[in-house]
Amino acid sequence: DETADTDNSNANEGEDSSDFSVAMVTDIGGVDDKSFNQSAWEGISAWGEEHGLSKGNGFDYAQSNAPEDYVPNITRMVREGYSLIYGIGFELKEDIQNLANQNPDVYFGIVDDVVEGDNTVSITFKEHEGSFLVGVAAAMKTETNKLGFVGGIDSPLINKFEAGFIAGAKSINPDIEVDVQYAEHFGDASKGKMIANDMYNSGVDIIYHAAGGTGNGVFNEAKDLKNADPERAIWVIGVDRDQHDEGQIGEHNVTLTSMVKRVDVAVQDVAQLAMDGEFPGGEQLEFGLEENAISVATTNEEAMTEEIINEVKKWEESILNGDIEIPYTREALEEYLDSL
Amino acid sequence: MEYVIEMLNIRKEFPGIVANDNITVQLKKGEIHALLGENGAGKSTLMNVLFGLYQPEQGEIRVNGKPVKITNPNIANDLGIGMVHQHFMLVEPFTVTQNIILGSEPKTKFGTINLKKAEKEIQELSDRYGLKVDPTAKIRDISVGMQQRVEILKTLYRGAEVLIFDEPTAVLTPQEITELIEIMQSLVKEGKSIILITHKLKEIMEACDRCTVIRKGKGIGTVDVKETTVNELASLMVGRDVNFQVSKTPAEPKHEVLEVKDLYVKDSRKVDVVKGLDLKVRAGEIVGVAGIDGNGQTELIEAITGLTKSYRGNILLNKKDITNKTPREVTESGLGHIPQDRHKYGLVLDYTIGENIVLQTYYQKPYSKNTILNHDAIYKKAEELIAMYDVRTPSAFTPARALSGGNQQKAIIAREVERSPELLIAAQPTRGLDVGAIEFVHQKLVEERDKGKAILLVSFELDEILDVSDRIVVIYDGRIVADLDAKETNERELGLLMAGSGTDKAGVSK
Amino acid sequence: MIFNKKFAPLLIPVISVLLGLLVGGIIMLISGYNPIAGYQALWLGAFGDAFTIGETIRRTTPLILTGLAIAFAFRSGLFNIGAEGQVIVGWLASVWVGIGIEAPMIIHLPLAILAGMLAGALWGLVPGLLKATLGVHEVIVTIMMNYIALYVSNEIIRSVLTDHATKTEQIASSASLSAEWLQSLTMYSRVHYGILIAIFAAAIMWFLIERTTIGYELKSVGYNQFASRYAGMNVKKNIILSMVISGGFAGVAGAMEGLGTYGNIHLMSGFTNLGFDGIAVALLGSNHALGVVIAAFLFGSLKEGAGQMPTSAGVPIELVDIIIALIIFFVASSYIIRLAILRFKKEGK
Amino acid sequence: MIDLLQSIVPTILFFSAPLILTALGGVFSERSGVVNIGLEGLMVIGAFVGIVFSLTYQSTFGTLTPWIAIVVAAIIGGIFSIIHAVASVSFYANQVVSGVAINMLALGIGVYLTKQWYDKGQTDMVEGFFRTDIPVLSNIPVIGPIFFERVYATSYLAIILAFVAWFVLYKTTFGLRLRAVGEHPMAADTNGINVKKIRYIAVVLSGILGGLGGSVFALTIVSNFSQSTIVGQGFISLAAVIFGKWHPLGAMGAAIFFGFAQSLSIVGSSIPVIEDIPQVFLLIAPYVLTILALAGLIGRADAPKANGVPYIKGSR
Ligand SMILES: Nc1ncnc2c1ncn2[C@@H]1O[C@H](COP(=O)(O)OP(=O)(O)OP(=O)(O)O)[C@@H](O)[C@H]1O
Ligand SMILES: Nc1ncnc2c1ncn2[C@@H]1O[C@H](COP(=O)(O)OP(=O)(O)OP(=O)(O)O)[C@@H](O)[C@H]1O
Ligand SMILES: [Mg+2]
Ligand SMILES: [Mg+2]
């Protein structure tokens, strides 16, 4: 293994801090995906602007349109001499790992997965914590005691959202049913709409989606129902960032809340550490409520009543205090539910 | 004398070839005017010029004395010129009526097609000229002869005064030909004028008033049919004397090569068409199958060649049972087949002549070894055959599509004969060929016979059957109803037998 | 005429590429970019150094194979829109063997490639069979098979190959196509031995189609089924065979990704597009083996180079898609180009 | 049962509508003899234009916006399809090649312009169509709630257009000529029909309908435009054309069948018997069902005879 003999990975140490530069490589979607690519880019931009840099001059990004673009994109950034290169998304894991091995002099970061090596840092999030909290909110809000979860692709990452959400909801009311469906696609809005249509028809009144573009269909369906009957309580819970805008329909807004994942915070933090010569090499940083990297949106003031917010706060405290452990796999969820 | 149509000094070139070189044709009102020439002489081209499908490079067209420019078929239609094409211009899934009105549809007051009105008009037209066409039938369900009448109706419906027929009789049975000639005569009586392209000199003598001859794109002249003979027409057209009588010695039949016993075959619509047929063909003889189209000839051939399955009876080739064997097995047992539809079955038009020459033998030595093709051997063979059979083609690498019909046919014959099969089935081998080419084909068949091969000739041309065969069997309603010596029968007797009268005549090997 | 025969097959694509680039340049100008900078970036992105060259070759590899797959089916009159699905199952199968078996390289690697080929072939067999026996249109069946491949292979990755993970473990090195020396030669690009396989496959396709009785039969059936039957060929067998071989090529394309580029297979949320791009490659290469190789290389270079355009020249990557589409158009419209050349020649004289 | 229908039918309707519209376009084009695998691209253009128009003019036209947007999308789709027409009718291009190019070009242009105009890869969301009750019809007992309550008007637009297309193809002179051109262009030509003109019209019609289909899809389902707005719907529409044997009502039936199969795979997961079937089987069910239907019921479908063959005057 190459990483073994590359403990001299801090070649950057001597560098003048003003030379420090940061780049990111998106996964499929681009920096404007209204999701974590965008969030990461905002974090890097914020970091850069703070240090008087500009895009292409101190920080930059490369967009990937297909998995095969990752390696050339990362390599390009290496070649252009960036000091720290982020791969945004678990899909880049292997490629970041490989390039990190090949380029011991460059810092690498991966978001949403784990890589190894002294010149790397892994940034993951406790999505289950946030999902738990929006589950709490949903349980407080539901009138039918039926909730829905729409996942993109059935995978460990999305399962974290699912497990947390169900745990949260059932913690409030164990009788709540959660209908779970995976679209097996992150970009199939029509499937999202069909699933939402089916769920809302069967009595679900709140759907939490962790399905990217497929979620568009969920919002679309909810807004349609709202438009037909503004009195009807129909909600969507957004994901990754505050999806309040997506929920706006005339006077109303169907976005109850969103599980916000502050990739920007994490990315900016790590960039700062690295620039300051404190790169957390080889570490796996897990960002959660504690780091302010996971939060629950309260933009929809009308919907998120005082009562709900208080309840959410209460659970948040318990999590921060370490009173409860939030499950992030289906097995852990089973155990958690049994313990209720 | 008034001319309805005058084509003066027409010249039409195609890349690399002058199809029409300074040709003049003048059509009198009320006459049937024949256009005669070898395959590829330029007849169709000339008529396509008249019909507005091609623009001539030079020359003038006059209609009723007035010079006109016919730049598309619409103009020809407006000028009262209608054309019955060599390859029918009919839309198969459409009905007769839809085909006829296409392009000049009567409308209802709602703007939809007024089919009822059209059907009535067409029925009337059909009755008037004795065409007996069903306006509501689908094209794909009616016979070739009927389809041709639809083409005629198409022109009449558009009010054509001048009708062009491009080889109308090539695809017809003798009965249909007789009827067509009657139809043409009744058209002329109604004041129409007709240009008729045909390779059959007898038809010209029978039906036409005058005849213009074209040779290799050049006009040779126009003759009055009453003042000429078949032989004169033939030599004008080919540029040499043509031998109509197939010269052959009496047959010396030997052992039986083909034996068909009590065969039953259904057609594509699952109807019995071959119903207990018996037939024998011996080495060294040509057996002609006479019959009206649709009496089971096609299915008989398909069953023998393995293209379709029989459900009862046996077929023996050289004593070997080949019943319901695959075409490959049948071919390998020693059968050659000149198919009736050369474009559909005979050739892969996009393959070169060379590739077509080895269509059944490509997998054998020397054309391939261990599945690897030997192009040298293939093209050497092809060039050999091209020379031997006088196939007119720029090279063996030319796609078959680019050859004229006659030359395509020669290529097929070359291929089939060259494999030296014990039994050669020749279905309509001279359809659409000019007299020179026909002479050649007949000669080849006789040569093969003399080499001791068995030959089964299926043709709708009684002349051909009578001239070439040694023995003639008549097929009627899926059975052989007569077995005659070719020298001792005649057209009249065959005609009667083919029509189903005299089924009890002796000679049926039952 | 001579000029037509000898040079047209080359001249038309070259002119088309130039025209495509020209129009692409105009679009850049109109949108306020510097076309020279744009194309410079494109060039550098594709051939700037050993790394990009390596990546360009790597990207070309599966495209050659899917192009061959589609071209092969086309030559026998069939339209295989299903290369996409065949790639996926081929990828899956090769990785499966790559992970699941222990064997020395000389056995393992060929076995893994073969597995990919067979899986693709199987995926081609279904539409082939249905077409041959029931006359079902291959276009619909192959489209449907694409989706089935996508979902089934995702499920297999999730439930069979892994315990609910997003990607499989890496294949054993004995099944890997990648070579240390190739990678270090190209500054750690992912170029792998697959390119040799792809070129070898092209040679096979050429040989099969042009030089063997198998190809002779397949083409014949493609041109005229009736005459082929008349001549004793087994039409059904040939239709099935054609789809199977076509699927086999596409399956190997998948194996290239599985054994070469990635060394694993991941859950796919959409199609790889290798199959769809293969259609364009095949047609651009006028369904000839050599043409396909060249077209795939052109495609690979343009797509690889495109990545550099946003960074160096600010031009959106999609411009390259537009350029590729234009090139395809110009090739498709070769008739008019040929006409223009002829006129040009005439005036020149 | 009625409950099930009531939940399934509206789903089928909204899912199928864009497919029906696009497939009708395919029917026109292919019936005239021009293969159109560019339907996907035409939908992309439709979706792009529909969304961009809505974004730009939502404030101007209010609730009428989506209606105007789909009309504009149809027009632009029609104009865009002229490229395919020129290539395949005038330049005698290989129609499959040209269709492939249309698909790439449309996506390229759509995303390129999105980046140019909005400086990002995807647009904001718009308010598109909403479901409504169809007046009068929704009051019919039993049938009304199933078919006419809470449906998209565009679904019925699609169905009505399918009948209109049938009427045009089978009852009017234009339809007769169009079908003749697709079967036997030379026959049509000798009857004085302008083959190229008919084919141009047919291809442009496919552009109009494809644009309509794409914009309806975007405005009823997705609400924004990005690279992945149209992912395969055009190909499914193409399958519907063939599945429906090139007949407008057949294509509609096929599109509805796809909708039904999709809907079943989703609703199925809450039906007791089906519930236990592994998810993957439900996922692939629509596609397997289609293949089975083709193999078992539909069988051979013969394309219009001249489909895909450029018509070159004077050649055979
Ligand atoms: N569209 C075309 N392009 C090129 N050459 C053509 C075309 N049509 C006809 N020719 C050539 O013109 C010549 C005359 O053809 P034409 O069809 O007029 O012959 P024809 O007298 O009708 O023959 P046949 O008796 O076989 O019907 C032939 O040499 C033929 O190859
Ligand atoms: N595009 C073309 N290029 C070259 N030759 C052509 C072309 N189109 C037609 N021809 C030639 O025109 C001639 C006459 O065609 P025509 O339609 O009269 O058929 P034909 O030769 O009589 O064959 P058949 O009687 O079997 O139908 C043939 O020599 C044919 O090869
Ligand atoms: Mg002719
Ligand atoms: Mg002829």
Task: Explain how this protein is built.
- The complex is a heterotetramer of chains A (340), B (510), C (349) and D (316).
- Chain A is built from 10 helices and 15 strands.
- With 340 residues, chain A is an alpha/beta fold.
- In chain A, the strands form 3 sheets. In chain A, strands 2-3-1-4-5-6-14 form a 7-stranded parallel β-sheet, sandwiched between helices.
- Chain A is globular, with a radius of gyration of 21 Å.
- Chain B is of the alpha/beta class and 510 residues long.
- Chain B has 3 domains: 234 residues, P-loop containing nucleotide triphosphate hydrolases (Rossmann fold, 3-Layer(aba) Sandwich), CATH 3.40.50; 182 residues, 3-Layer(aba) Sandwich (Rossmann fold); 79 residues, no CATH class.
- Helix content of chain B is 32%, strand content 26%.
- The longest helix of chain B has 16 residues.
- The termini of chain B are far apart.
- Chain D has one domain: ABC transporter involved in vitamin B12 uptake, BtuC, CATH 1.10.3470.
- Chain D starts with a helix and ends in an 18-residue tail after the last helix.
- The chains are: A alpha/beta (340), B alpha/beta (510), C mainly alpha (349), D mainly alpha (316).
- The interface between C and D is large, with 45 and 52 residues.
- Chain B: It holds the Pfam family ABC_tran.
- Chain B: Keywords: ATP-binding, Nucleotide-binding.
Nutshell version of this structure?
The complex is a heterotetramer of chains A (340), B (510), C (349) and D (316). With 340 residues, chain A is an alpha/beta fold. Chain A contains ten helices and 15 strands.
Key words describing this protein structure:
heterotetramer, A: 340 residues, alpha/beta, 7-stranded parallel beta sheet, 6-stranded mixed beta sheet, 10 helices, disordered N terminus, C: 349 residues, mainly alpha, binds adenosine-5'-triphosphate, binds magnesium ion, ABC transporter permease (chain C), ABC_transp_permease (chain C)
Topology:
The complex is a heterotetramer of chains A (340), B (510), C (349) and D (316).
Chain A: E1 22-28, H1 36-50, E2 54-55, E3 58-64, H2 70-79, E4 84-88, H3 93-102, E5 107-111, E6 120-125, H4 127-141, E7 146-151, H5 156-172, E8 177-182, H6 189-201, E9 206-210, H7 214-228, E10 235-240, E11 248-249, E12 252-253, E13 255-261, H8 263-275, E14 284-287, E15 294-296, H9 306-321, H10 330-339
Parallel strand pairs in A: 1-3, 1-4, 2-3, 4-5, 5-6, 6-14, 7-8, 7-9, 9-10, 10-13
Antiparallel strand pairs in A: 11-12, 13-15
Chain B: E1 3-14, E2 17-28, E3 32-37, H1 43-50, E4 58-63, E5 66-68, H2 73-78, E6 81-84, H3 96-101, H4 115-128, H5 144-157, E7 162-166, H6 174-189, E8 193-197, H7 201-207, E9 210-215, E10 218-224, H8 230-238, E11 256-266, E12 272-282, E13 286-290, H9 297-305, E14 310-317, E15 320-321, H10 327-332, E16 335-338, H11 342-346, H12 353-357, E17 368-369, E18 372-373, H13 375-388, H14 405-418, E19 423-427, H15 435-450, E20 454-458, H16 462-468, E21 471-476, E22 479-485, H17 491-498
Parallel strand pairs in B: 3-8, 3-9, 6-7, 7-8, 13-20, 13-21, 16-19, 19-20
Antiparallel strand pairs in B: 1-2, 1-4, 4-5, 9-10, 11-12, 11-14, 14-15, 17-18, 21-22
Helix pairs in contact in B: 14-15
Chain D: H1 2-31, H2 39-61, H3 65-90, H4 95-118, H5 143-148, H6 153-171, H7 173-183, H8 185-190, H9 195-222, H10 233-243, H11 248-267, H12 272-275, H13 279-298
Helix pairs in contact in D: 1-6, 1-9, 1-10, 1-11, 2-3, 2-4, 2-9, 2-10, 3-4, 3-9, 6-7, 6-11, 7-9, 10-11, 11-13
The complex binds adenosine-5'-triphosphate (2 copies) and magnesium ion (2 copies).
One adenosine-5'-triphosphate (ATP) binds next to strand 2, helix 1 and helix 14 of chain B.
Pfam family, one (chain C): BPD_transp_2
Subcellular location (chain C): Cell membrane
Keywords (chain C): Cell membrane, Membrane, Transmembrane, Transmembrane helix
